[in-house]
Specification:
Elements (H helix, E strand, L loop, with lengths): L6 E4 L2 H6 L6 E6 L39 H18 E11 L2 E3 L2 E3 L2 H4 L4 E8 L15 E8 L15 E3 L14 H9 L5 E4 L6 H8 L3 E6 L2 H17 L5
Parallel strand pairs: 1-10, 2-3, 2-9, 6-8, 9-10
Antiparallel strand pairs: 3-7, 4-5, 6-7
Helix pairs in contact: 4-5, 5-6
Bound molecules: S-adenosylmethionine.
């Protein structure tokens, strides 16, 4: 079955991925909601912001509250990853961006989501700065990118020289509440030979922009009509002007 590429789908990613044929993508690059509002911390969870008043995600996403019971969230994310693995070809890989955090004084390292999956590497994305008002631990300055790879996955020639700690500034101009930087996704995509790229949580369309920059094909899914529109505009602008408008 042929699938139409270079488009965005408005819908729930699990439902939409289930409609895709097995083995139809070479690469998945994505960053899911982190369930940040289900937090033992004192600010993000109740919507008032506490010390986090200026954090964009205080209000959650436009169509997702980001506050699921922890076990439900982990199961959901695991099911999403299993579906991503199903739609990947035998030389494909998933780059799954997530954030570890401290909950009730203990590191929550997302093992409950990724345990048993074919993790080949954890890449550290070192961000600039960060916020932590907690005296119990050092200021977190990185996120992780799980490289979850099928057996035959290989990087593009010379890409392995980038190493596994990457420093990129977070995105500041993008109105989406949790975008990742184009430069980070450009690094991932240009480090592979993938032709068909899926992002099931496409948000403002960063993965699509980086795919176009590298002459690859993409399919993006998001549950929010607002972000799909944002992404469509951003892609249109990029194709027209060759510049990333935000
Ligand atoms: C961390 S953001 C992704 C941001 C994106 N990487 C970017 O650069 O703009 C997570 C996205 O997941 C979307 N989302 C939440 N639940 C979803 C679901 N069930 N299916 C598809 N998308 C969903 C949210 O609307 C949000 O845009």
């Amino acid at each position: 079955m042929e699938i139409a590429l270079n488009k965005l789908i408005l819908g729930d990613c699990l439902e939409e991925m289930r409609k895709l044929p097995s083995g139809s993508f070479d690469l998945v690059v994505t960053s899911p909601p982190y369930n940040l509002k289900n937090s033992t911390g004192n600010g993000m969870k109740d919507g008032r912001g506490g010390k986090w008043k200026n954090a964009e995600l205080v209000n959650g996403y436009s169509n997702h509250h980001d506050c699921m019971p922890h076990d439900e969230y982990s199961k959901w994310q695991r099911n999403c990853l299993l579906e991503m693995l199903r739609v990947l070809s035998e030389n494909g890989a998933i780059f799954y961006n997530h954030k570890w955090r401290v909950q009730n004084g203990l590191l929550q390292d997302r093992q409950d989501i990724v345990k048993g999956l074919p993790i080949r590497q954890i890449i550290i994305w070192k961000r600039k700065g960060g916020i932590n008002f907690n005296q119990g631990y050092f200021l977190p300055t990185y996120e992780v990118i799980y490289l979850i790879a099928k057996k035959n996955f290989k990087l593009a020639p010379k890409a392995n020289a980038f190493g596994d700690v990457w420093e990129f500034k977070q995105e500041m101009k993008n109105p989406h509440p949790a975008p990742y930087p184009v430069a980070l996704i450009n690094r991932i995509i240009s480090s592979t030979n993938a032709q068909r790229i899926l992002d099931p949580f496409i948000g403002s369309g960063t993965t699509a922009i980086a795919s176009i920059m590298n002459g690859r094909e993409y399919l993006g899914i998001d549950i929010s009509p607002e972000y799909i529109e944002m992404a469509e505009n951003r892609i249109k602008e990029f194709k027209k002007q060759g510049v990333i408008s935000f």
